[in-house]
Specification:
The chain is of the alpha/beta class. The chain has twelve helices and 15 strands. The protein is globular.
Length: 376
């Protein structure tokens, strides 16, 4: 039986083998088999801030790993005001050796249910000198893969993204032309990114492909907050498949930084925009992430209220850093230089962290306003 989240639930004994043979992700909980429709895998990860997938907390072990996020480097060409790895702030460049990248991708292909690989940053993944080789290896191993990019180099990689079967591209755009260029510190950057999106769409049509699906991610910040409807209208005119507006991620120690929204009139404007999104229909999917209730948005940005302390993200994904460290919630579980990914995801440290989460005793400052936290 399928519900509206794209998750299938049925008797495990009859259908588990069939699901695995079809390559569909399966989660086993309490004698039932939960299958995740691959087409909905991106949306599945967006569900981390809800309580829907609390079934995963039944055990501290990971039985199926839906996603592996790989950070090829921490190098970026942007100077975003809110980023610690901005070009002029980051003097300690870390780049993943190709041998390690190859090992990580090959290991993902050895899982019975292969996880989706997502290339992202710490830095800009399309800066990585071996990114084409990484794309080709994913295609060769028949892995589903996607990418989050700032979009600056999209026009250079359109062919490679399509011919190597990239399933989805998330492009970060911070506002209208003036806001985006100001935040990133690169004049003319907005136009270059928009042109890259159009070239990618034209290349898809030329090759008669429907993927990668293209979505835009826009983080609410102090510079764009009063122009959100204008920004939405600009995005709606682009050849894209979806838009996500995201609340800013910050911890308790970052509440006084300039890019955060602190003015209550601006926050009230944000609340009105969220209401506009939630009460209207659009020709493409528009997400709000994480799902913060309108009545709680002021509290989210201006108080130290911790909301609910719960999380399921460590059951859904791990992050592999340029030096091979495998992390979950900023905690190091192991290193793929020395151990297999399969052994790391259920290592003693991984089980310890997930058990603490199950008991509600895991506390670090980064949980304060994490986008994957369960707020309710």
């Amino acid at each position: 039986m399928e519900n509206d989240k794209g998750i299938y639930c049925f008797d495990m004994v009859c259908n588990k083998r069939r699901a695995i043979l079809c390559g569909i992700p399966v989660i086993e909980v309490g004698g039932c088999c939960y299958m995740v429709n691959k087409k909905d895998l991106k949306y599945y990860l967006l569900l981390t801030s809800s309580s829907f997938l609390n079934i995963l907390r039944f055990s501290p072990r990971i039985h199926i790993l839906p996603s592996v996020i790989i950070y090829p480097s921490n190098v970026c060409n942007y100077d975003c005001v809110m980023c610690t790895n901005a070009r002029n702030k980051n003097k300690n460049h870390k780049i993943m050796d190709w041998d390690l990248m190859e090992k990580n991708i090959n290991e993902c292909s050895n899982f019975i249910i292969k996880p989706r690989i997502h290339f992202s940053g710490l830095g800009e993944p399309l800066i990585y000198s071996k990114i084409k080789d990484a794309m080709q290896l994913c295609r060769k191993n028949k892995l589903r893969w996607s990418m989050t990019t700032n979009g600056y180099f999209l026009e250079n990689y359109a062919n490679d993204l399509i011919l190597n079967n990239c399933s989805a591209i998330n492009v970060s755009i911070h506002g209208c032309r003036s806001e985006h260029d100001k935040i990133t510190g690169i004049k003319g950057n907005f136009d270059k990114v928009i042109n890259g999106i159009k070239i990618l769409d034209e290349t898809k049509k030329r090759f008669k492909k429907t993927t990668p699906l293209i979505s835009i991610n826009c983080v609410f910040n102090n510079d764009n907050i009063l122009n959100l409807k204008k920004i939405l209208n600009i995005f709606m005119k682009l050849p894209i498949n979806g838009i996500t507006f995201q609340h800013m991620i910050f911890n308790e120690n970052e509440k006084d930084v300039d890019f955060l929204i602190k003015d209550k009139d601006k926050i009230k404007s944000l609340v009105k925009f969220v209401e506009f999104i939630e009460t209207n229909k659009f020709p493409i999917k528009v997400n709000l992430f994480p799902k913060i209730k309108r009545k709680d948005i002021i509290r989210y940005y201006t108080t130290k209220n911790k909301f609910k302390q719960s999380c399921i993200f460590p059951w859904l994904s791990v992050r592999i850093h340029p030096n091979g460290e495998v992390k979950s919630c900023f905690q190091t579980l192991g290193n793929t230089k020395y151990n297999s990914l399969k052994s790391i995801i259920n290592s003693c440290e991984a089980l310890r962290i997930r058990n603490l989460l199950r008991r509600g005793k895991f506390r670090i400052s980064s949980c304060f306003r994490c986008c994957h936290k369960q707020y309710y």
